[in-house]
From TrEMBL:
It comes from Paenibacillus alginolyticus. SUPFAM superfamilies: lambda repressor-like DNA-binding domains, Periplasmic binding protein-like I. The keyword Iron does not apply. One of its GO terms (molecular function) is DNA binding. Residues 2-58 form the HTH lacI-type domain. The keyword Transcription applies. The lineage of its organism: Bacteria, Bacillati, Bacillota, Bacilli, Bacillales. It comes from the Bacteria. Keywords: DNA-binding, Transcription, Transcription regulation. This is LacI family DNA-binding transcriptional regulator. InterPro entries: HTH_LacI (IPR000843), LacI/GalR-like_sensor (IPR046335), Lambda_DNA-bd_dom_sf (IPR010982), Peripla_BP_I (IPR028082).
Length: 342
């Protein structure tokens, strides 16, 4: 049976060095060449094959560095914690795997050389594809997260917006609603420069909302409102909706911060929720369960989104060639803001 001493003799290093390398001791000061030689000898003489294979993989990952590019600012993250949850999940999973995050960059005035030394890049949010290629031309080592536009050349992770919207509307239909409105946000494909906002794109939730409502024959463009992705905008848009003589009996709102602002407007105008207007949000952020009334919302899983993005990069490091697109499901969490039970 092969031993550590056998490996040490053939690799021309001490047994202590072999032991520390095979235990993935990253504090050990030893060259990559020596580490590779130790693993090669261990494999050749059959030293605990399954363990050596696993340790070799861990060692290879520990030498990787990835970049993380986010279009959203730190202040925007505070407004909508969904994006901070995705970022933290990426960072946590990298830490678990021993992968270093070499750069975390937000979208304004990105140095074109910022990611050149990285082994991979995760892009969170919709960034102009030409700009991405300028800063990181290796398509096979880029993962797009929550990118608005489908791009078959890149690995990607996205939410199942179609099923989410169908769940929302199916629940409202079940409760007897036909006059259903929507409050959403302007979507942009962001540029990596001083002129941050690039071309606009339609919110995927809105596209599916319109499709389902038109199939039912209940779509009313007068019930559609669009603004910024924040609480103040949700408040103002709901006030605008309430100012019309014809208003919907239910409203789907594209994120929870906007929905919380809308609830404030409803309270100020004496509109009872849910008997006069049912409300459903999106993201199911922590505070949604504690507003008055507690907000029904589409629960997303940002932790899984972040982990999946890292996993796609790891598979690329291990040699996967075909492009993969991962779709993460959602779940409708029913609370008092829409009435009824799921």
């Amino acid at each position: 049976m092969a031993t550590i001493k056998d490996i040490a003799e053939q690799a021309n290093v001490s047994s202590a060095t072999v032991s520390r390398v095979l235990n993935n001791d990253l504090s050990l000061s030893v060259s990559d060449e020596t580490r590779d030689r130790i693993f090669l000898v261990a494999e050749e003489i059959g030293y605990k094959p399954s363990r050596v294979k696993r340790l070799k993989k861990e060692n290879e990952l520990s030498n990787k560095q990835i970049g993380l590019l986010l279009w959203i600012s730190s202040d925007d993250e505070k407004e909508d914690p969904y994006f901070s949850s995705v970022r933290l999940s990426v960072e946590k999973r990298c830490e678990e795997l021993g992968i270093a995050i070499g750069k975390v960059v937000r979208g304004n005035n990105v140095d074109p050389s910022a990611f050149h030394q990285m082994d991979g890049l995760i892009v969170v949010g919709s960034v102009d594809m030409e700009d991405i290629e300028k800063i990181y031309p290796n398509r096979a080592a880029v993962v797009l997260v929550n990118h608005l536009l489908n791009n078959s050349n890149y690995d990607s992770v996205k939410l199942d917006f179609q099923q989410a919207v169908e769940d929302v509307l199916g629940h409202l239909f079940h409760l007897g609603h036909q006059k259903i409105g929507m409050i959403g946000g302007f979507e942009y494909v962001y540029k990596l420069g001083p002129n941050k906002k690039g071309p606009t794109a339609v919110d995927i939730r809105q596209l599916h909302f319109e499709r389902v409502m038109k199939d039912k024959g209940w779509y009313n463009p007068e019930y559609m409102y669009t603004g910024e992705w924040n609480t103040a905008s949700g408040y103002e848009l709901m006030k605008e909706m309430l100012g019309k003589s014809d208003r919907p009996t239910a409203c789907f709102i594209s994120n929870d911060p906007m929905a919380i602002g809308a609830l404030r407007a409803l309270h100020e105008n004496g509109v009872d929720v849910p008997s006069e207007m049912a409300i459903i949000g999106f993201d199911d952020i922590d505070v949604s369960a504690y507003v008055n009334p507690p907000l029904t919302s589409v629960k997303v899983f940002p932790e899984q989104i972040g982990r999946s993005a890292v996993q796609l990069l790891v598979e690329r490091f291990e040699g996967r060639e075909p492009v993969l697109h991962v779709t993460i499901g959602t779940s409708l969490v029913v609370r008092e803001s829409c009435g009824g039970k799921k």
